[in-house]
Write a structure and sequence with these properties.
- The structure is a single chain.
- By secondary structure, this protein is mainly beta.
- The protein folds into two domains: about 210 residues, Sulfite Oxidase, Chain A, domain 2, CATH 3.90.420.10; about 100 residues, Sandwich (Immunoglobulin-like), CATH 2.60.40.650.
- The protein is about 5% helix and about 40% strand.
- The strands form seven sheets. A five-stranded mixed sheet has the order 4-3-14-7-10.
- Strand 8 and strand 9 form a beta hairpin.
- The N terminus is likely disordered.
Length: about 325
């Protein structure tokens, strides 16, 4: 089994800070300073004093909020897994850019209820303040969309806090969209405008990039919902372990929650069911398997998550491919 890599093609204007390897993801709640930073067209200069959020399009009553008005509204706090979809240039590369954080902000569904969504509306377009050139094309804004049906599930926020503290500049200050269960590319940072629409957005980030091929067809599907995935935190890659019972543990996650995790200690020849902990709100879930090595030598450890819908991780060739690492038994 080929190992995955954090390395991806450099893209003009992109900011990329990858703080943690899987073996360093030991905390249930990822510290803000350890959260990965990914920005397609750099980090814009922003201020709370000059910031406004416009909500318009197919609504009955357009809304404009400044920062003070946003902060004055009822606050929701939500713990959720937060994952990068990986390189838009190489969508089959599993990058493991994953964290579990707590967001604080305003419930978006309540705001849109006040605006009054028109009957013909189907999508919500989200505009970031970041702009510039990406993949050779000049963009006025980072623009993404989500289906309005996602709002009915709840928990979509306009966030201004990260782990109980003000949202850092590089993570979207003054405010960002947070769509739990969707890949981070859809949670637009430096949010400036929301437009209710009757179709998908025509941005390069919704048409040219972040659309996966549907196997066996010529169709594509948007990269929205997070697929079932898992990684092993301990043992770490290339660790030397004693020939006695040890714990293999890690994190598993999915848009719909994880029902099962299986662990292999022989490179996928056999699988063993692990214990899976509960899900807190929309967080990742801890899994654990007690392993008693039968002989000294090298072993390849793997983990495979299955979600509530019965989907599981493919062995290779996908952004959520099975995670594998080598250890040596002394």
């Amino acid at each position: 089994m080929a190992k995955t890599s954090q390395t991806a093609m450099a893209i003009e204007g992109m900011v990329r800070e990858i703080k943690l390897e899987p073996s360093q993801m030991t905390a249930q709640l990822t510290p803000a300073e350890d959260l990965f930073v990914l920005a397609h067209m750099g980090i814009p200069e922003t201020s709370a004093e000059n910031w406004t959020l416009d909500i318009g399009g197919h609504v009955q009553t357009p809304i404009r909020l400044n920062y003070e008005q946003l902060m004055a509204r009822p606050k929701r706090v939500l713990e959720t897994v937060h994952q990068c979809a990986g390189s838009p240039m190489n969508p089959t590369l599993a990058t493991r850019r994953i964290a579990n954080v707590q967001w604080g902000g305003v419930d978006l569904a309540e705001l849109l209820d006040e605006a009054g969504i028109s009957a013909n509306a189907t999508h919500l377009w989200s505009y970031g303040m970041d702009h510039g050139k990406f993949a050779g094309e000049v963009q006025e804004n980072y623009l993404k969309d989500i289906p309005l049906s996602r709002l009915a599930e709840g928990d979509v926020l306009i966030a201004y806090e990260l782990n109980g503290a003000p949202l850092p500049q590089k993570h979207g200050f003054p405010a960002r969209l947070v769509v739990p269960g969707y890949f981070g590319t859809n949670s637009v940072k430096w949010l400036s405008r929301l437009e209710v629409a009757d179709r998908r957005a025509d941005s390069i980030f919704t048409t040219r990039f972040y659309n996966d091929a549907v196997p066996g067809t010529e169709d594509t599907r948007p990269v929205w919902e997070i697929f079932p995935e898992s990684l092993i935190v301990a043992p770490a890659p290339d660790a030397v372990v004693a020939a006695e019972e040890i714990e293999i543990w890690g994190w598993a996650w999915s848009a719909t929650g994880v029902e099962r995790v299986d662990v292999s200690t022989d490179g996928g020849d056999s699988w063993h069911q692990a214990e899976v902990g509960p899900r807190q709100q929309r967080s990742w879930q801890r899994f654990s398997y007690q392993w008693s090595p039968s002989a000294a030598g090298g072993c390849t450890l793997m983990s495979r998550a299955t979600n509530a819908d019965g989907a599981n991780q493919p062995l290779e060739g996908a952004r959520n491919a099975v995670y594998a690492l080598d250890v040596a038994v002394a």
